[in-house]
Design brief:
single chain, 177 residues, alpha/beta, four-stranded mixed beta sheet, 28% helix, metallopeptidase activity, metalloprotease, zinc
């Protein structure tokens, strides 16, 4: 009998063990996966963008895909550091996270999530929503027009407080295995 797909939570210069335990528990309740928390490692040197003192999300995802064990479905980088990507005319656009569809790796940053959070629990919920959103891309989901769906496009705004769950349409499209 085949077990649940394995997802690696890969802390990148991130040592909040309580937050990682919260994410493990919450993700396993949300998606039918087994979460393994890896040891903390540093970002690869080539992902650092010195002019803005942040890390390139696209370079980080490519590197995470290379270090992902074959036994894992997806690897999720978690960091407090600022991450960015090229977006339209913006050559260094700061993001909360990035994941490709379909994909084997994604990265999520807490950097922008806490600035307007009203409590630690609110912050945790926001982080969880970004993680499952980026994992959703890895599992084949596009952005969704339903405002309360986890897969709604943030469009550069903090929409996390409206998101509740995956809508029925997105749940049917999941490709976790």
């Amino acid at each position: 009998m085949k077990g649940k797909p394995i997802v690696i939570l890969q802390p990148l210069q991130f040592d909040d063990t309580k937050m990682l335990a919260y994410l493990k528990d919450s993700i396993e309740k949300f998606y039918p996966v087994e979460i393994i928390i890896a040891d903390v490692i540093n970002f690869p040197a080539n992902s650092y963008y010195k002019p803005r003192n942040r890390y390139r999300a696209d370079s980080t995802i490519k590197w995470l895909r290379q270090i992902k064990p074959d036994s894992a479905r997806t690897i999720v980088g978690i960091t407090n550091e600022d991450v960015s990507v090229n977006k339209g005319a913006h050559k260094d656009y700061g993001v909360m996270g990035l994941g490709y569809k379909p994909g084997k790796s994604c990265v999520v940053s807490t950097y922008r999530l806490g600035k307007t959070a009203t409590s630690q629990k609110h912050f945790q919920q926001r982080l969880f929503k970004v993680v499952v959103h980026e994992m959703g891309h890895n599992f084949g989901l596009h952005h969704c027009p339903t405002e309360t769906c986890i897969m709604v496009d943030a469009e550069g705004q903090m929409k996390l407080d409206r998101e509740k769950n995956l809508c029925g349409n997105c749940r049917r499209k999941l490709q976790i295995n």
